[in-house]
Design a protein that fits this description.
The complex is a heterodimer.
Chain A: E1 2-13, E2 16-27, E3 31-35, H1 42-50, E4 57-62, E5 65-66, E6 77-80, H2 92-102, H3 107-121, H4 136-148, E7 154-158, H5 166-183, E8 186-191, H6 194-200, E9 203-208, E10 211-216, H7 218-223, H8 228-233, E11 240-249, E12 252-257, E13 260-263, E14 275-280, E15 295-297, E16 299-305, E17 309-316, E18 319-326, E19 339-341, E20 348-351, E21 357-358
Parallel strand pairs in A: 3-8, 3-9, 6-7, 7-8
Antiparallel strand pairs in A: 1-2, 1-4, 4-5, 9-10, 11-12, 11-14, 12-13, 14-20, 15-19, 16-17, 17-18, 20-21
Helix pairs in contact in A: 2-3, 2-4, 3-4
Chain B: E1 4-6, E2 23-25, H1 31-64, H2 82-85, H3 92-98, H4 101-121, H5 123-134, H6 138-149, H7 156-166, H8 173-180, H9 192-220, H10 224-233, H11 237-262, H12 269-275, H13 281-284, H14 287-297, H15 301-330
Parallel strand pairs in B: 1-2
Chain lengths: 359, 335
């Protein structure tokens, strides 16, 4: 059964169209993350699902019910906002109970629901406090509590972790994931942080300029990006992209990046002289030539040490590249690196004109 | 456990309390050190002091210097002897005042008019602001706001003229309308029982629109996500107004209420002077009009100063009390 289905969804403000007819199926109990840069339309899409924005064109179904003109309160969705949207004059218990009170739920039921939710989220001892007396993480938990307590069919998250510091974000990310496993409710989550998307999502929807660039599992997007945009957006650091021209040699096609020639996998459907973009993930480079891998000479600029890993900033014939490598606790040899190796099957080729992957 | 270090911040570590704070005994500063710091501070921040200066000078000239003259409330003041040379007579003027029926009447009138003003005049701009907030059509909202702001910019004399004309027994619109229903003409401004409603109503008409600006600004500061969240939760506009807008602007309402209470004895003296007449003194004469008649018209400056001082003392006590109550019960206060 489909949890949320968007068909040809368009959003326009006057004559300015910002979402250009997107189609998306979110399965029941699935955790889908909409990710993309600022202004790509992901929050607008989420707000259309919530009913906070009118849908200009297309259809929205929630649990097979057409919801285009259904009021937000009747869609059976709950939303967690970026800035928590907690009522400053109410304590934690009253904040969590707000939605239930509005719906005139019996008092005893409200008390039990609030207590249960507080237990799940570890908020029991803070029930009497006001939002101003809570830390950012606790506020975020209260916001989630408010969403959970109504037992909605769909959870909507609008960048709920972006106001937290890096450490708390990691912690809360894990809590959201655990919570989803426990509650098993269809969830649509918006973020601009690809790490959040990769760690939380069953499937990721990459959006750009009001369209969906690609939908897939995190690993699918990481390993098989559909175009240069997805390749550059998913992965940290992003995929290295270098303009090149296809040449032919006796052992197959090669991509010529200025003077450096990179052998390509035989299965690629390219033609000689074609202008392409060569994409290589930083972690797919190897510093050792294991099994006759093609060598790529580079000029090292800078070594960034991250602890267990290091990032080598270098240039390959004036093209900037980043190489990610394990340090194994020793970085003394990294400053001498002048050649890296890459397996041909790890090299992605994109059409220089359309940016689409060539398979 | 609380770690304690003496004199040297470098000795402090973040191991003292669970939140990492430690008790710190600041080194004692000599007078010379303090002076030197003050001079350095002034040298670095002199621009701020220059900007502050006009306000300080204004306060001294118009608020503090006149306080010197307050002493005449305790003196047998004569303009020929001057303030300093006039003899002290203690609380004699206050005893005379409290024995004066007109003054007692003026005090009660002030309290009654202020109470009506507080009861009807204070909520009016809040209600107006809440209503404006619900208007969705931007053009109509701007038009309506302009209309209700306008009376604030009209001189009190003109306002009084409009009121006198409107309530005129011969050509006034109010009596004309009453006439349509067969009612007899009423000379409202000579009837003591009509003075307070007309005065309070005029005040609301003149100031409610302009007063709503403060509350509209407070409403504009309410986080829009609160409303969106409430919409998703199923709240109606009415519920959002009661459960979000009003509680969110409550600190502003309380601050404005404290200020209002501080001015409770200051009813619009000019408007009363322009609207009242001996026939309505029984309900219209307030402390300020009494002070005006005693001080300026009868030349009893010392008696008028005593009445004014009484007025100020009552206002001071009220504002301190209101502030303390507000701080205790709503966590909001002026100081």
């Amino acid at each position: 059964m489909t949890g949320v289905r968007l068909e040809g969804i368009v959003k326009a403000y006057g004559r300015i169209q910002v979402v250009h007819g997107i189609d998306l199926n979110v399965e029941e109990k699935e955790f889908v993350v909409l990710v993309g840069p600022s202004g790509c339309g992901k929050s607008t899409t989420l707000r259309m699902i919530a009913g906070l924005e009118e849908i200009t064109d297309g259809t929205l179904h929630i649990h097979e019910r057409l919801c285009n003109r259904v009021a937000p309160k009747d869609r059976d969705v709950a939303m967690v906002f970026q800035n928590y949207a907690l009522y400053p004059h109410l304590n934690v218990a009253d904040n969590i109970a707000f939605g239930l009170r509005i719906r005139k739920t019996p008092k005893a039921e409200i008390a039990k629901s609030v207590s249960d939710v507080a237990e799940i989220l570890g908020l029991t001892e803070y029930l009497d406090r006001r939002p101003a007396d809570l830390s950012g993480g606790q506020r975020q938990r209260v916001a989630m509590g408010r969403a959970i307590v109504r037992h909605p069919k769909v959870f909507l998250f609008d960048e709920p972790l972006s106001n937290l510091d890096a450490k708390l974000r990691t912690q809360m990310r894990a809590e959201i994931k655990r919570l989803h496993k426990r509650l098993d409710v269809t969830s649509v989550y918006v973020t601009h942080d690809q790490v959040e998307a990769m760690t939380l999502a069953d499937r990721i929807v990459v959006m750009n300029k009001g369209i969906i660039e690609q939908i897939g599992t995190p690993m699918d997007l990481f390993m098989n990006p559909a175009n240069t945009f997805v390749a550059s957006f998913i992965g940290s650091p992003p995929m290295n992209q270098m303009p090149a021209t296809i040449t032919r040699s006796p052992d197959g096609y090669r991509a010529l990046i200025d003077q450096v020639s990179v052998p390509l996998h035989n299965s690629l459907s390219v033609s000689e002289g074609q202008d392409v973009i060569v994409g290589i993930r930083p972690e797919h480079f190897s510093l050792k030539n294991d099994g006759g891998l093609p060598a790529i000479p580079l000029s090292l600029d800078l070594v960034e040490t991250l602890g267990s890993e290091a990032l080598l900033h270098a240039t390959v014939d004036n093209q900037s590249v980043i190489v990610k490598t394990d340090t194994n606790g020793d970085i003394s040899q990294l400053s001498n690196v002048d050649t890296v190796y890459v397996p041909p099957e790890k090299v992605k080729i994109f059409d220089a004109g359309t940016g689409k992957v060539i398979s | 456990m609380t770690a304690k270090s003496v004199g040297n911040a470098a000795n402090n570590t973040a191991s003292g309390t669970p939140d990492g704070t430690v008790e710190y005994a600041a080194p004692a500063l000599t007078l010379g050190d303090k002076l030197s710091r003050a001079v350095d501070h002034f040298r670095n921040e002199w621009q701020l002091y220059v900007m502050l200066a006009p306000a300080v000078i204004w306060c001294i000239v118009f608020l503090y210097k006149p306080m010197y003259g307050l002493q005449i409330a305790f003196k047998d003041y004569s303009i020929f002897r001057g303030v300093a040379a006039s003899p002290w007579i203690g609380l004699e003027h206050f005893e005379t005042l409290f024995g004066n029926d007109q003054f007692i009447r003026a005090v009660f009138n002030t309290i009654k008019i202020s109470a009506l003003n507080l009861l009807f005049g204070f909520p009016a701009p809040i209600i107006l602001a809440l209503m404006f907030n619900e208007v969705l059509h931007a053009g109509y909202k701007r038009f309506a706001q302009t209309i209700v702001y306008l009376p604030h910019f009209i001189s009190t004399v003109i306002i009084a003229g409009i009121v006198i004309t409107a309530f005129s027994p011969t050509a006034g619109i109010v009596n004309t309308i009453l006439g349509w229903f067969g009612a007899d003409s009423i000379y409202f401004l000579t009837k003591p029982e009509w003075f307070r409603p007309i005065f309070v109503g005029t005040g609301i008409w003149q100031e409610a629109g302009f007063g709503s600006i403060v509350f509209l600004a407070a409403i504009a500061g309410v986080n829009p996500s609160l409303y969106e969240s409430a919409v998703v939760d199923g709240a109606s506009r009415w519920q959002m107004m009661w459960k979000i807008t009003i509680p969110s602007i409550l600190p502003t309402i309380i601050i404005m209420l404290i200020i209002r209470i501080g001015n409770i004895m200051e009813v619009s003296f000019e408007l009363i002077i322009l609207l009242y007449q001996p026939a309505t003194y029984s309900t219209a004469d307030v402390v300020n009009t009494f002070v005006y008649r005693q001080g300026l018209q009868s030349g009893q400056y010392d008696m008028a100063a005593a009445a004014g001082l009484f007025n100020a003392a009552v206002a001071f006590v009220l504002v301190v009390a209101a502030n303390s109550l507000s701080r205790r019960y709503s966590r909001t206060s002026l100081w």
